[in-house]
Amino acid sequence: MPHNTPLKFIIIGASTAGLVSAIALRASGHEVLVLERDEELGGSPSIPTGGVRLPPNGCKILFDWGLEAQIRAHAIIGEGFTVYKYEGTDSGRDYLGTNRWDPELLRESRGDFLQIRHRDLIRILYDTALGKPLKNDSEPQLNGHTPSQPITFEFAAEVVDADFDTCSVTLKSGVVHHGDAIIGADGASGFVRRRLLAEDVAPLLVSGCDDERRGLALYAAIIPKSVAVADEELSKLYEYPQRNMVTFSMGSNRGAQAFLAGEDEDIVFWVYTPDADEDGSWTQVAEKNITDVVGPCDPLIRRLAALAGPATCVQIKNYYELKSWVSKSGNAVVLGEAAHPFPVVSLHTYSVAIEDGAFIGKLFSHSRKSARVREFMSAFEETRKARCLHIDHSEKQYIDVMALPDGPMQATRDAAMRANEAAGRNVMDAADVDLQQMWDDMRMIFGYDPADDADDWWMSWGRLRDAPSASKEGKLTEDIPNESL
Ligand SMILES: Cc1cc2nc3c(=O)[nH]c(=O)nc-3n(C[C@H](O)[C@H](O)[C@H](O)COP(=O)(O)OP(=O)(O)OC[C@H]3O[C@@H](n4cnc5c(N)ncnc54)[C@H](O)[C@@H]3O)c2cc1C
């Protein structure tokens, strides 16, 4: 293939990871086809759209792409969180303390802590993928050229088979698509992840590598603002500063979060419960009512559950860790939840999926050679894996800390938080090593820039392996310089 011909990427999945990588790869001058199983963007409209917390490392990437105004128009700025005991006291709620995001930390990381609705974010990414300019009202330039063609989307296009050796995928309809590279952005239970799992172990053993449940399920529901403001208890969530805070409730093997999201300021309500066996998904209504699984709780949680619309139920799991994110053929890779599924509604699911997409797009701004696809896919895995696994570990720690069973450790946690509150400190600022470590971790995580990381790899390794080669005309050709996004 001539070096100035774009590579053709087939991306499976049109959610956060798929859309961001599509935008970034197109901006790097490549041809992109996105295949989505659902008939409509963002899932079925009959399922209530949920909410998302988007920390600085995620939103700053989108801001840098020129999407700040659109994102902010659909978001509430989170200023921190207040922490309560899940069960409350006989007389009402039991307050442990408050944590405010450090303005300096946010300034340093050039982002914000946004609360947005899933479908609004996906719609903004989709519009951008369809060709809305990324920056300064102009298309991003690559090597002096604007991206040659728009991204192609196919909905109701479920991938049911793939041949990584020939780099082709087969849809349920029987249609076959060929490309130079396949990106599996099809989620934690997606096709590409299962296929890589089959490469890890003999295909017949794949069912023996099932993801392990952690004993908690997550119920997610929405309470419309019109309903909430008419309620004595819930209307308090609309008073400043609580309107810009996540309400966090810690129980014994239980937990809950509530926050306002989106321009409509509806309440997003999440309950972590041991009382649900269902292995549900974001695209189906839960079998049980949320009121049946909240258990003993404080008045706020009781009112939220009573007024919540239909809920979804997703189990929190320890997912099987893929040995490799890249197929043996070298031309297929997983990213986002398909590569590193975090516990559901983790703080960083969206931001890290955005990082993945931005990273892969930036990486491929440096080459159009199909012969380098394997190396670039491996570079993605090598560079990104440690960070993603570290974040996964932290996310599990947050859940463990939140849902500590009653006992000595829970008592120590509560005492540390109450002491901080009494001293006027953030609840997470404790002398307690684990809490302080979690807070330091956030600083490291918020400050990350995937474009810099991709360029570091290119400068340290990639460009050195790419000695100029002779073109047919006898002229020396080099890979594309780093100019996109
Ligand atoms: C409809 C929907 C609603 C969600 N709502 C919320 C929410 O409110 N709050 C929250 O915290 N998280 C939500 N999530 C999860 C959240 O989207 C992810 O954790 C995050 O965006 C990063 O995920 P991802 O892009 O890697 O994968 P996902 O978001 O899981 O997306 C995977 C995509 O791949 C598609 N797909 C799967 N298999 C195939 C196949 N064989 N062929 C073609 N396409 C396929 C899926 O339909 C989906 O669009 C939702 C997910 C979905 C799919």
TrEMBL record:
InterPro entries: FAD-bd, FAD-dep_Monooxygenase_BioMet, FAD/NAD-bd_sf. Residues 10-196 form the FAD-binding domain. Transmembrane segments: none annotated. Keywords: FAD, Flavoprotein, Monooxygenase, Oxidoreductase. SUPFAM superfamilies: FAD/NAD(P)-binding domain (SSF51905). GO terms for molecular function: FAD binding; monooxygenase activity. Gene3D superfamilies: FAD/NAD(P)-binding domain. It holds the Pfam family FAD_binding_3. Belongs to the paxM FAD-dependent monooxygenase family. This is FAD-binding-3 domain-containing protein.
